[in-house]
Every structure is written in C-alpha cells, then in structure tokens.
Design goal:
The complex is a heterotrimer of chains A (about 220), B (about 240) and C (about 260).
Chain A: H1 2-48, H2 53-68, H3 71-81, H4 91-117, H5 120-128, H6 133-163, H7 175-186, H8 189-223
Chain B: H1 3-45, H2 57-82, H3 85-98, H4 105-130, H5 134-142, H6 147-177, H7 189-200, H8 203-236
Chain C: E1 6-15, E2 18-28, E3 33-37, H1 44-51, E4 59-64, E5 67-69, E6 71-74, E7 77-80, H2 83-90, E8 93-96, H3 108-118, H4 124-137, H5 153-165, E9 171-175, H6 183-198, E10 203-206, H7 210-216, E11 219-224, E12 227-233, H8 234-239, H9 244-256
Parallel strand pairs in C: 3-10, 3-11, 8-9, 9-10
Antiparallel strand pairs in C: 1-2, 1-4, 4-5, 6-7, 11-12
Helix pairs in contact in C: 3-4, 3-5, 4-5, 5-6
Classes of the chains: A mainly alpha (about 220), B mainly alpha (about 240), C alpha/beta (about 260).
The complex binds adenosine-5'-diphosphate and magnesium ion.
C-alpha cells in the first residue's frame, strides 16, 4: 500500500502540470457541450410543440436519433466521418458538438415534460386571483417549471462531465487522454486511471450532492 | 467495388458485431438487475431496526452488519455513479493487468458495465420499494407469508410499475454504452467498425452504417420503454 | 378452568431507550372478546403486534392454543423461530390494520384469495370461492372485481376483514379498525365486526369506540404506562371505573363523542 502510494509522490511533479491543464480542458468541454445541449434542447422542445407538422416530425426524429445512437458513434461520425464531406473540426470542438448533440435530445425531453406537467388550471387559478398573464407566468408557471426541470438538468451536467471522457477516443486533450497517454509511456496504468477516477469523483460528487439537495427541496415545495 | 457492394460487405461484418453487442448487453443487464435488486432491498429494508440495549449478541451483530452493509452499498453506488464508464473499464482491464490480474476484454467489459448498472438500479429499486407503504409488507406477514414471499407476491409486483420505465431506459443506455468497450478491444459493433475503418478507410460509410445499426437495435427497446412509461402514468392516476 | 386460547406472559418491548411494554400478562379464552383501550401512545398497537410477532418482544412469551408462538424452546433456552415457521403460525391469526393496507395491484377478490393460494397452496378456484364467501360475510361480494383504490375507506376495511377471515384464524386482532375512517363510514365496519363477534369468534380489539367496546367485548383491558392498569367485565369497567386515570380517560372519550 505504502509502496503503491509512494509512486504518486515520486511522479507528482511530472504528472501534476499536464493533469491540471487536462482538467481545464475537461471542464471547458463539459461547460461548452452543456450550453450547446441546453440551446438545442430548448429549441427542439419548442419545435415539438409548434404548429408545423414538419417541424414537429424533424424534432421528434432528432430526439429518437439521439436516444438510439451512442454518443461515441456521434463523436466518431463528426471527427472521423465529416472530413470525408469536407467538414473538419479539431478534436475539442468535435467533442463539444458531439456531446451537445448527444445530450440535446434528452434535455429536450426534460424541457417538454416540465412544460407539460403544468396544468392549465394552475394558470387559470392565477388569472382568477387577479394576476396578469405575465405575472401568472412569472410567479406560477415559471417557478413550477423550474421545480420540475432543475434536478434532471443538474443530472445532465454530471452525465456530460462523465461522457466528456469519451473525447479521449477522438484525441481531445482532456483528462482521460492524459491518463491514457501517460499510461502507455510509464506503464503505470493502475496509478493513472485510479488518479483520474478520483478526479472525476471529486468533480461529480459535489454536483450530485447539490442535485439531490435541490431535488429534495423542490419536492418538499411541490407537496406543500 | 460499387457503393452498394461496400454497404453489403460492411453490413455483414457489423451485424456479426451486433451479435456480440447483444450478448454483452444481455449479460450485463442480468448482473445489474441482480445487484440492483439485492442492494436496493438491503437499502430499503436493512435500516429499519432501531437499536435497543436489550439486544442479544446475535441481534446486535446482525444490526451492526446491516448498518455496515448499507454504508458499503452507499459508497459503491456513489463511486460507480460518479465515475465515467471508460475509467472503470480502463481500471479493470489495463489497471488490473498491471498488478497481475489479467481479465479478458469481454469479461472486463461485462464486469465494468455490470457494476455501473448495479449502482444505477440499486437506486431505482430502492425508490421502488420505498414507494410502497410498510403496512403492505406487514399485512402480507400477517396473513402468513414469509418475508421472501411478501417480497415476491406483494412488493415486487407493485414495484414493477414504478421501476420498469427506468429499467427499460437503463437498458437502452446500456446498449449504447457497450460502444465504449471497443476501447478495451472487447468485440462488438464499434470494435468491428474500427477494424474495418483501418483496413478500408471508408470512414463515413462505416460509421453511418454503425449509427443505423445501433438505432435499429435500440428502437424496439425505446418503444417498450414508452409503453411502460404510459402504463406507469396510467397507474399513477 | 379450560386452557386459554391466547396467553401473553410477561411481555416486554422497548424501542431504543423507550420502554413501551413493561411486562404484560393477559389471557384470552376461546370465543372471548377483549377490548384494549388506553391513551394514545400507551403501547396498545405494540402489544397487538407482539402477539403475532410483527414486533419481536424483548422478553416474555406468547402461547396460542397452548403452543409457544414465534419461539422455540430447547431445554430451558428460548430461541427465535425461522421466518418460515413463524409465517405458518402467523397464518393462524388474522389481523386488521388501522390503515387497511389492501394491496393496490390486486383486485378485491385476489386480495382475499392470494394468501390462501400462495401460503396454503389452495387451488385457485377453491380460493376464489372461499374469497367470495368471505366477501359475502362482509357484504362486499358485489365489488369483487374492483381495485381497492376505487372503494371507500369503509369498504376497504371490510375487504381487509374478509382477507383476515379467509385465513380461518383462531384469533382476530383489530388495531383501531375505524380510526382512519370518515365518521359516516364507521358504522358499517363496526356492524361487520359485531356480526363476527356474534359468531363467537375470539378477538382482541384496540379501539377508541368506548360504547362499541362496552357492547361487544366480554372484557375490557385498560393499558397505561406500559402495563395493564385495570381490567374486568366490559360493563363494570366502563360504567364503574376505579382507576383515576381510567376515569379521566373515559371522561375525555365521552366528551369527544
Ligand atoms: N417501530 C417503532 N420504533 C420506535 N418507536 C415506536 C415504534 N413503534 C411504536 N413506537 C413508540 O412506542 C409507543 C407506543 O406506540 P403504540 O403501541 O403505537 O401506541 P398506541 O397504539 O397505544 O397508540 C409510542 O411512543 C411510539 O412512538
Ligand atoms: Mg396504535
């Protein structure tokens, strides 16, 4: 055990700088992909409720596509496949786009169920007590929608963080690639993968803690 | 070769990979359900006892064991829900080999995905059991059922309504996640595809075929999940 | 005197540091009906639940029909029974809960029949016939295909009683069977229990319906402070209470009704 741990001490000075920059790449990937997924999700959710049958069908098709096709395949299509059609992204942006597209369908469904869960009666009750339509949106509909949507949204963020590790397979210089590259030169795979495992946990556990707190609070608010 | 010939040729190889994908998915799914049921039940029912100073040694021991089991399960769940699947696979395959435990890629893949799935389903089943009032179980014991009988005849049939939709969605996610195990050279669609690509360089055709193939595999599962969800909503009304 | 149907001997039960039962001794003859009364939280439910070992006593023994219940005796050592043996014994005692606890995924008939099929290995058709007979007894046979959530509370409780009757129990335990009901539904459930009492069934009934207890029970047992504070023939105890705590308790109950 001591022997195992001492390896970290010996290599820390050489591992630490690339690891820190890899963590930043992972965070940037996660953040950018999340923003993209939110944007796609919102547009698709609205598209699925639009009056145009065509638009509804396209949006439904997109949701079904992301539900059925692995994110890794989407990443490979973008990074290795698109150049064949003359479209080239570097690994980082291919990662952002692939993760964003892969998660956008799920986020669209979360938005949609959030909007659907709100009963018309609740809006009418708000109007009946004298609120303006804007007030009923601001004080009734929006808070209700946030209650329903926020906890799964936080969970999506965690999912994207974990999925960002897939970008190692398209050579984006993030945390998993850092471990993979070093493992092949140092022959210390156990040390390196455990190390990045701990880093991923350190990033995801606080997020899931927050997600659960929010969920508990939102649910308490719903049943009251 | 014309495009159609290529498509035909590649499809044959990829469908072979699909057979492996399905076996990995099925095997992993079974492991995850067993782990999830077991740990979910322990989490839901293991913490019920309140400690009493009049406990005999045996009772104290079983009480302490139950507490330890729940803590261990909680740690397991948190760790395997927080780690990327790729990290788990790399630790099991490359990491363990490095310390002298050599797993077949297939074994490492099923173990890794199974452990991750078990952590997910533990929470699903715990929530399912938790949604059923404790009185239901007592009423079953009162008519003479054993705790196992109560679980089988009374609790589980009710739990399915709540747990089937997330289980079906888990199965879809699992099917998709199997694509990752190509990274440890376990045979499945993606692994066959990557080999094809290095031989033929027909990158875009092959990965489009792969996408279509995954879609075809998961489509029936998705419809099943929708059915379960609709049923659950009906039941909740 | 003939051997009692139920014998509760020096029953102790604690939850953590809270000592709820501090040595209960009680006997119930064949066909006898006992009403357990007492202030909320005094341990009536706990006592009832210890009788069929839903709650494991810390000390003391239960005998049903002369047979040690829930425990085994080897030499003078008592040890707990296996869950399987315990289940067989529990099948001989019927229990009706305050919260009904019908199983929502089964229709009314299956709620009554399932234990006979799964526990006693009865053929399905036979169990269904038995269930219908029991449902007739509680006047619920016309709802046999309904699911519990579509029934009123009173109807649910009567089905729960039918479920207990289908066990052909030696003893029936009722834990505040009407406390969760709307006032206008209490009567139908009390009537059903009254009919069962008239059939000469042995029962132990926890209730706050003092008038009903006086009319139906042979004996009233007043619990207070973790023990039995006073007991005796129903009419004597209720019309002429001696214990001052019982007097004030009865006063409160009368005021409430
Ligand atoms: N499972 C339990 N764990 C801890 N305390 C309990 C439990 N069940 C009952 N109690 C406590 O034991 C006391 C007696 O409860 P109970 O038998 O339900 O009273 P009653 O039925 O007379 O109202 C109460 O103080 C109650 O809070
Ligand atoms: Mg009670």
């Amino acid at each position: 055990m001591i022997e195992f741990l001492s390896v970290y001490g010996e290599n820390w000075s050489t591992w630490q700088p690339p690891m820190v920059s890899a963590i930043w790449v992972t965070l940037a990937l996660t953040f950018c992909a999340y923003i993209l997924a939110l944007a796609i999700g919102l547009l698709v959710a609205l598209g699925r409720m639009s009056n145009s049958a065509m638009l509804r069908a396209i949006c439904k098709g997109y949701v079904e596509f992301t539900r059925g096709v692995p994110t890794l395949v989407i990443l490979f299509l973008i990074y290795f496949g698109l150049p064949g059609f003359g479209i080239v992204f570097d690994a980082f942006w291919a990662g952002v786009i692939g993760l964003g597209i892969g998660m956008g369908g799920y986020i669209a469904e979360v938005f949609r169920s959030g909007l659907q869960a709100i009963h018309f009666g609740q809006r009418e009750a708000a109007l009946a007590v004298g609120m303006t339509p804007f007030q009923s949106f601001r004080y009734i509909m929006l808070p209700l929608a946030i209650r329903i949507v926020l906890p799964p949204m936080l969970n999506m963020l965690i999912l994207i963080l974990k999925d960002s590790s897939l970008c190692a397979l398209i050579t984006a210089p993030e945390l998993m690639l850092f471990a993979k590259d070093l493992a092949s030169t140092t022959f210390l795979p156990m040390h390196l993968y455990l190390l990045v495992g701990v880093v991923y946990l350190a990033l995801s556990l606080p997020m899931s803690l927050v997600a659960r707190r929010v969920e508990a609070r939102m649910q308490a608010g719903m049943s009251r | 070769m014309t495009l159609t010939e290529k498509i035909e040729l590649y499809s044959i190889t990829l469908v072979k990979g699909a057979g492996w994908t399905v076996s990995i998915t099925l095997l992993t799914f079974c492991i995850a359900v067993v782990l999830g049921l077991l740990f979910g039940a322990v989490k839901a029912y293991g913490g019920k006892q309140t400690y009493s100073s009049t406990f005999t040694l045996k009772e104290t021991l079983s009480y302490v064991l139950a507490r330890i089991a729940i803590i261990a399960i909680n740690i397991y769940v948190e760790v395997f829900r927080g780690l990327p699947a790729l990290a788990v696979l790399f630790i099991l395959y490359f990491g363990l080999a490095n310390v002298g435990i050599r797993l077949e890629p297939f074994t490492a893949a099923v173990m890794g995905l199974g452990l991750i799935g078990g952590a997910m389903l533990t929470e699903v089943f715990r929530a399912g059991f938790g949604a059923i009032h404790g009185g239901q179980r007592e009423a079953a014991l009162a008519v003479g059922m054993t705790p196992l009988g109560a679980l089988q005849h009374i609790i589980l049939p009710q739990t399915w309504r709540v747990t089937l939709p997330p289980i079906a969605n888990y199965a879809i996610g699992l099917l998709k996640d199997t694509a990752i195990v190509s990274a440890i050279a376990a045979p499945e669609i993606m692994f066959f595809a990557r080999n094809l690509v290095t031989r033929t360089f027909d990158t875009e055709i092959i990965y489009i075929l792969v996408a279509i193939l995954y879609f075809c595999l998961s489509f029936p599962l998705a419809r099943l999940a929708d059915r379960f969800e609709a049923k659950a909503l009906e039941g909740a009304r | 005197m003939a051997e009692p149907l139920l014998k509760v001997e020096n029953l102790h039960k604690s939850f953590g540091s809270l000592e709820v039962l501090k040595g209960i001794d009680l006997e119930l003859a064949k066909g006898e009906k006992i009403a357990l009364i007492g202030p909320s939280g005094c341990g009536k439910s706990t006592c009832l639940r210890c009788v069929n070992f839903l709650e494991i006593p810390n000390q003391g023994h239960i005998y049903l029909d002369g047979e040690l219940f829930g425990q085994k005796k080897v030499g003078d050592q008592y040890s707990q029974m296996s869950e399987k043996e315990l289940a067989r014994q529990r099948a001989t005692i019927g229990m009706v809960f305050q919260g009904f606890y019908l199983w929502p995924h089964l229709n009314v008939r299956d709620n009554v029949a399932i234990a006979q099929i799964k526990v006693n290995g009865m053929a399905k058709s036979e169990a269904n016939d038995l269930a219908m007979d029991m449902l007739k007894k509680v006047h619920m046979d016309h709802k046999s295909e309904e699911f519990p959530e579509r029934l009123s509370g009173g109807q649910q409780q009567r089905v729960a009683i039918a479920r207990a009757l289908a066990q052909r129990p030696k003893l029936l335990l009722f834990d505040e069977p009407t406390s969760a009901l709307d006032p206008e539904l209490v009567g139908e459930v009390l009537n059903t229990i009254h009919e069962l009492a008239d059939e000469g069934r042995a029962m132990m009934l926890v209730t706050h319906e003092i008038a009903f207890a006086r009319e139906v029970a042979d004996r009233v047992v007043f619990m207070d402070g973790g023990g039995i504070a006073e007991q005796g023939p129903a009419k004597d105890i209720i019309d002429n209470p001696q214990n001052p705590r019982l007097q004030s308790f009865l006063g409160q109950m009368l005021e409430r009704n």
